Amino acid sequence: MEPYDEAQITGEDTIIRRINPQQHIVWDENRGRFRISSKVFSPSSEPNGGMSVDIERLMLADGLDPREYVTTPVFTGSMAFSAGAARALGLIVGYDPIPTNPYHGEVWGADRPNRFSRQQRKGLAVASRWYVELDDVDVA
Amino acid sequence: MIDSLQGSTAFQDEILCYAPTADPISSLSPPRRRVRVELPRSKWMADLQERLDEITSLPRGWDGYDGRPVSFNAALFAANLIERLFVAGVPSPDVVPGSDGTLQIEWHRNQYDIEIDVLGPYEVVAYRRNQRTGNEQELELQTDFTALAGWIDDLLAEQQTNKKYG
After folding, report:
1. pLDDT reported for residue B15
2. Does A38 sit within 8 Å of B64, measured CB to CB?
3. What DSSP line would sit under B89-138, residue for residue?
4. Is A94 in contact with A4 (CB distance < 8 Å)?
5. CB-CB under 8 Å, A20 with B62
6. Are the C-beta atoms of A112 and A82 separated by less than 8 Å?
7. Which B-chain residues 101-160 have CB contacts (< 8 A) with chain A?
8. Which residues of A touch B (CB under 8 A)?
9. Angle, to 10 degrees, between the axis of helix B72-85 and the axis of helix B146-165?
10. What is the model's pLDDT at position B28?
C-alpha cells in the first residue's frame, strides 16, 4: 500500500495501537512504576510500511465493540491517539485493510514512510492515552 | 556433534563447531579442535542473554500486526555494544523489540532516561533526558560510541551520589 493521507479519517478519529505486555513494558526506576516503551511506536520494515494501527470508527460502523476486537489473550492492552495528533507531528494516516483485519490502518512518516523521528515517537507517546488499560503501567 | 548443535540458541554460552570423525586407519585418538566463539562475560549480557534469544525468536505478528522478530544482526550488534558499555554497579538495561526487527536498549533510573535505538549494525539513535535539569540530547551514531560510555558513567555517578546523600 502506497502511503497516503485518508481524507475520510478526520482529526477526531481514534487510532488504536495494540500492546504486547510481554514485550512493550519496561521498568522505570525513576517513577517506581512500569511504563510503555517508546519503542512501541515503530513502523514496520517494509519500504512503504508504516506503523500498523486499528481504526476505531470502522469497527463502530460494523457494530463491533472495538475494545473487544483489539483485545486478545496476547494483546491485553492498547493505546489510542487522535488522527489529528499524528498529523500535527507530520505523520499521515490511511486505511490499509488486510484479510485478517479489515479495520487495519497505517501511520506513515511523511518523508520516509517506515521511519519515525525521535520527536514523532515522543509526540505519539505524549498524545496517547490508554484504550484498554494495563494495571499499574504508565502510558509513557 | 549435530545433536549438541540442535539445541543451541543464538546467544548460548559456547558453540562446539568442529570435531573430525575418527580416522579408521590410525590407532591414535582422533584430533579434536574446539573452536570457541568468544562471548560477552559482563553481568549485563549474562542477564540479557535469554532476553536476546527471546526477541530474535519472536513469531511473526508478535506485536498484534505484522511485526517481525529482531534481526540477528541487530541483536548481535546490540550485544556487542552492551558489552562495551558495561559498567559494574549499573543495573542491566531493558531491551525492547520494534515491529521492524530493530531493538531499543533502555534505562530509566538515577534521574535519567536513556534510550539507545539500534536500527541495525552501526546505525544507532541515542536519546538521553536528565530529569533533574530537563536537558535532552539526541545523537545519531555509527562507529564512535564514546558519548554513550559517558552517559553510562553519568548514570553510575548519579547512583553513587544518591547512595551517599540518600
Report:
1. 40
2. no
3. TSPPPEEEE-TBS-EEEEEEETTEEEEEEEEETTEEEEEEEETTT--EEE
4. yes
5. yes
6. no
7. 101-104, 106, 108-113, 115, 117, 125, 127, 131, 138
8. 18-20, 23-24, 26-31, 35, 37-40, 42-45, 49, 51-52, 70, 72, 74-75, 101, 104, 114, 118
9. 50
10. 60
Q: CA A132, CA A109: separation in Å to the nearest integer?
A: 26
Q: Which three cell numbers stand for residue B41?
A: 562475560
Residues (pLDDT < 50) of chain A are none
B126 chain-A contacts, CB cut-off 8 A: none
Residue B90 in contact with residue B148, Cβ under 8 Å? no
pLDDT of the residue at A72:
85
Confidence of residue B16 (pLDDT cuts 50, 70, 90): very low
Q: Which residue type does A4 have?
A: Y
Residues pairing with A18 in the sheet: A78
* Residue A116, pLDDT score: 87
ipTM: 0.92
**Angstrom distances, CA of residue A80 to CA of A77, A127, B100:** 10, 8, 20
Contacts of B67 in chain A (CB under 8 A): 44, 52
